[in-house]
Every structure is written in structure tokens, then in C-alpha cells.
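Thread amino acids onto this structure.
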């Protein structure tokens, strides 16, 4: 069996049901801070905000492998990523983070991209380090990684 081929595209409203289901999965809730799953209304508000093209970038990783977002403010962005369990370990996370950082640099002109990672999320810490992010600071149980163009 051959290796899966992954691609990315902008999220569309038809992705909401799939995204909401995975966003509320135990692994996604734990990775996002261990809070509660989102209600349908909360999820729709978040999904709509992430799709706001003048403020954010929201890409789906195909085929049904996850998503990566970049929330933008004042030439800085906060990246987040979720990769479904079946797609992990195949390089999809690295591909998505690197592509989003290139986009942030070349298309938006970002000065920096940060990633906030729960300290127990070793896989995400390793992913961002592999993609050129450096540990910038720590706060409570979060590690804050930073990437700047040209690094």
C-alpha cells in the first residue's frame, strides 16, 4: 500500500460538520487546553471567525486529515493544527505548518508566528521545533514557540 498524499485547501462552510465532530473529539479537546467540547452555536461562531479572510487563514488538510489555522493580528499570527489519528506520523503536520508559515511570510508579510502548546503535548512541541520554531517563553502549563521569517 502506497503512502498517502496530502494537500490543503481553504475551509468552506460544508466542512463545518466534519470539523465540529473532530474539534469535539477527546484528543482535540485535550490538545486545545482540556476545556469542554463546543456547543453547536459556539462551534459555528469559532468556525465562522476562523474563516474570516481579512483576519485569519483556515485550511483543511485533505483527505480528511485535519486542519491548520492562523489567527492574525498586527503582522503576527498564532498557528494551531490538528491532525487526525490515522494521518499522524506521515509528515502531514510538518507539511501543513511549513506551508502555513511560507504563506504567512510571502502572502501576508507576517513578522512572526507563534504556537502555544500545552507542556504535556510532546508531539506538538517536537513538530513546531522540527519546523523551525524556537521556545520563546513559558507560562503556567503552556510553552510558547515562535517562528520568524528567514529562520
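Threaded sequence (151 positions):
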Amino acid at each position: 500500500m502506497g503512502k498517502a498524499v496530502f494537500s490543503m485547501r481553504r475551509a468552506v462552510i460544508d466542512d463545518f460538520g466534519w470539523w465540529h465532530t473532530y474539534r469535539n473529539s477527546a484528543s482535540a479537546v485535550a490538545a486545545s487546553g482540556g476545556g469542554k467540547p463546543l456547543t453547536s452555536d459556539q462551534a459555528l461562531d469559532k468556525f465562522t471567525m476562523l474563516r474570516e479572510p481579512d483576519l485569519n487563514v483556515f485550511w483543511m488538510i485533505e483527505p480528511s486529515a485535519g486542519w491548520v489555522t492562523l489567527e492574525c493580528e498586527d503582522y503576527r499570527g498564532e498557528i494551531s493544527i490538528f491532525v487526525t489519528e490515522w494521518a499522524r506520523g506521515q509528515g502531514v503536520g510538518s507539511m501543513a505548518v511549513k506551508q502555513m508559515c511560507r504563506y504567512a511570510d510571502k502572502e501576508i508579510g507576517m513578522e512572526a508566528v507563534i504556537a502555544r502548546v500545552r507542556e504535556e503535548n510532546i508531539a506538538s512541541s517536537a513538530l513546531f521545533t522540527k519546523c523551525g520554531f524556537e521556545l520563546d517563553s513559558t507560562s503556567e502549563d503552556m510553552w510558547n514557540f515562535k517562528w520568524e521569517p528567514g529562520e
